[in-house]
Design brief:
mainly alpha
Length: about 90
């Protein structure tokens, strides 16, 4: 697939020089760089809940606050009220 990206001139120059020194192409440098970057596990930013928030939310496997499961049905009005109270 072809795509167009905008890179700072200095970065592009350094990448082309490095590719030439390693006797490879800029395209190969980009492929290897993306593969290496994508192979690293992503670590979600740590989210800390206040005690009040922890009563309502829990942090999922991706580090995202989600509503706790409860025995009651949550309505849009309840969610909007919580958002207002928490300033979100």
């Amino acid at each position: 697939m072809k795509t167009t990206i905008e890179l700072p001139d200095a970065l592009m120059h350094r990448a082309k020089v490095a590719a030439a020194q390693r006797r490879t192409t800029f395209k190969q440098v980009m492929i290897e760089s993306l593969e290496q970057w994508l192979s690293k596990p992503s670590t979600p930013a740590a989210v800390e809940l206040t005690p009040e928030q922890a009563e309502i939310f829990e942090i999922d496997a991706y580090g995202v606050p989600v509503l706790r499961k409860r025995d009651r049905v949550m309505t849009n009005e309840m969610i909007n009220e919580m958002r207002e109270e928490m300033g979100i």
